[in-house]
Amino acid sequence: MHLFSAMFLLVMLAVMPCEVQNISQSMEVLDLRTYRDLQYVRNTESLMKVVDGKLKVASENPRSLNPKGFQELKDKVTQLLPLLPVLEQYKTDAKMILRLREEVRNLSLVLMAIQEEMGAYDYEELRQRVLLLETRLHSCMQKLGCGKLTGVSNPITVRASGSRFGSWMTDTMIPSSDNRVWSMDGYFKGRRVLEYRTMNDFMKGQNFVQHLLPHPWAGTGHVVYNGSLYYNKYQSNIIIKYHFRSRSVLVQRSLSGAGYNNTFPYSWGGSSDIDLMADENGLWAVYTTIPNAGNIVISRLEPQSLEVLQTWDTGFPKRSAGESFMICGTLYVTNSHLAGAKIYFAYYTNTSSYEYTDIPFHNQYSHISMMDYNPRERVLYTWNNGHQVLYNVTLFQVIKTSGD
């Protein structure tokens, strides 16, 4: 077997998963944004017809436009101004479509090259090489998978539903092919969880089933991890693991010393004392205890037993935090839940150190009551004043060597 040809095939196979993932993510973002903007354009269509009619009358008979009529026309045109950034976004999206078309074309060329190369190899030998490549690729992805947060994209509004406070999520387990979406409206004594088959069903509010939890929840710091919902039981520091398929509680355990019932909430209140989350490193609880003087405590949890594996005291006062989320073992904290908020503080569990940051993001609806990272999708899920919103994140990735 020709060594160069074999290396070429392996490189092509290594490139393909990343290319497909990038194209898939770009298309999903494009689909969400197009759906939102199309709805806005449809809503302004009638207003555009009114303005068009008034302009035609004014052009045919300028004297018919008195000061009052001119002011009315000016007001209508002002109402159309928000359409400009939407149309500007369409120009950007058109460029993205051209880029996606080029990437798909390149991918087709890669597939054709692989098809030609495969004809020259013994199938079993090729299969063994692919298995070896998968092992190496997995190791490579482990090294590239994590990084430091450097930026947050503009918000993508997926849907407007529910009350001012709530949470929504997809499964955070890596890897997982589970496409379900869950929604939990409110923060006070709720028990109803809505489960949608896909993100598209969630956007349209269709094809869902209801779970009625045996115990009510407190706050909005819930997380779905490997098919189970982890949440804080109302008026307690007990964490419950509820399995969706069996509709049963698998385990519940007290988070020793953790404050609850608005003892140490985030700045927005809402019984947000205990915030559960997941990242590339597993399951976490963010909370505060009296001995820690109201500062944020991070504990890594064992998903099956909910046993605390390790704990860190960040030294950051929880009541000064708007929300927080974990990425690659680092806790990122916002300085507010209101307009003008930014990611202000980062605590690194791998070194037990912290730094103050200045990472802005657009708080579009001015009241965030839930903000969680999903490591499968590399996005932030937020519940913002009755709107379900996504943010893409940018991570600065450092390739680890075998000596690290």
From TrEMBL:
Keywords linked to the UniProt accession: Coiled coil, Disulfide bond, Glycoprotein, Secreted, Signal, Synapse
Biological process terms in GO annotation: signal transduction
Signal peptide range: 1-20
Claim: Glycoprotein is one of the keywords in the record: yes
Ranges in coiled-coil conformation: none
Disulfide linkage: 146-328
InterPro entries: Noelin_dom (IPR022082), Olfac-like_dom (IPR003112), Olfactomedin-like_domain (IPR050605)
Annotated localization: Secreted; Synapse
GO CC terms of this entry: extracellular space; synapse
The keyword RNA-binding is annotated on this UniProt entry: no
Residue intervals of the Olfactomedin-like domain: 145-397
Cross-referenced PANTHER family: NOELIN-2, OLFACTOMEDIN-RELATED
Protein name (record): Olfactomedin 2a
